[in-house]
C-alpha cells in the first residue's frame, strides 16, 4: 500500500490521536450516510483503491467498509474541507451504511423534525 501524498498530508489537521473526521455522503441522493474517523494510511488506501477505509478508535486499527458485512462503499470522490480537519467521501453504497443494517447512521433518532 502506498503512503499518503505529502502535499495532501501537509494540508490535513489531525486531532491528538492523529485522526480526522470523514463524512460519508451517498452519490445521487446526497444523503449523509455516516461519520467515521481516518488516519493518513486509511485515506491513502481509500484514494488508491476507491474502497472506503476508516480507522476504528475502539479497535485501534483500519477497517474496510463492507469487508465483513458485504455492505461496501465504492468511493467516487474525496474532498477536503476548508479547515483541513474533515474529508467528504461521495460513495456508491451497497447495503446498509450503519452497523445496525440501516441505510444511514442517522435513521434512528430525529431530534428536531423538519419545519413546515
UniProtKB/TrEMBL annotation:
Essential cofactor(s): Mg(2+); Zn(2+)
Amino acids binding Zn(2+): 82, 98, 105
InterPro entries on file: PRA-CH, PRib_AMP_CycHydrolase_dom, PRib_AMP_CycHydrolase_sf
Keyword Ubl conjugation applies: no
Subcellular location: Cytoplasm
Keywords per UniProt: Amino-acid biosynthesis, Cytoplasm, Histidine biosynthesis, Hydrolase, Magnesium, Metal-binding, Zinc
Residue stretches in coiled coil: none
Gene3D superfamilies: Phosphoribosyl-AMP cyclohydrolase (3.10.20.810)
One Pfam family hit: PRA-CH
Biological process (GO), any one: L-histidine biosynthetic process
Chief location category: cytoplasm
Cofactor details (free text): Binds 1 Mg(2+) ion per subunit. Binds 1 zinc ion per subunit.
GO (cellular component) term, any one: cytoplasm
EC number: 3.5.4.19
NCBIfam families: PRK00051.1 (NF000768)
Function: Catalyzes the hydrolysis of the adenine ring of phosphoribosyl-AMP.
Family in the record: In the N-terminal section; belongs to the PRA-CH family.
Name under which the protein is recorded: Phosphoribosyl-AMP cyclohydrolase
Amino acid at each position: 500500500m502506498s503512503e499518503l501524498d505529502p502535499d495532501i498530508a501537509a494540508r490535513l489537521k489531525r486531532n491528538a490521536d492523529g485522526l480526522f473526521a470523514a463524512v460519508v455522503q451517498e452519490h445521487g441522493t446526497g444523503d449523509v450516510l455516516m461519520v467515521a474517523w481516518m488516519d493518513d494510511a486509511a485515506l491513502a488506501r481509500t484514494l488508491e483503491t476507491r474502497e472506503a477505509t476508516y480507522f476504528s478508535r475502539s479497535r485501534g486499527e483500519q477497517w474496510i467498509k463492507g469487508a465483513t458485512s458485504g455492505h461496501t462503499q465504492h468511493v467516487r470522490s474525496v474532498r477536503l474541507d476548508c479547515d483541513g480537519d474533515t474529508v467528504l467521501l461521495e460513495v456508491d453504497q451497497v447495503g446498509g451504511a450503519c452497523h445496525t443494517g440501516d441505510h444511514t447512521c442517522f435513521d434512528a433518532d430525529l431530534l428536531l423534525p423538519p419545519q413546515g
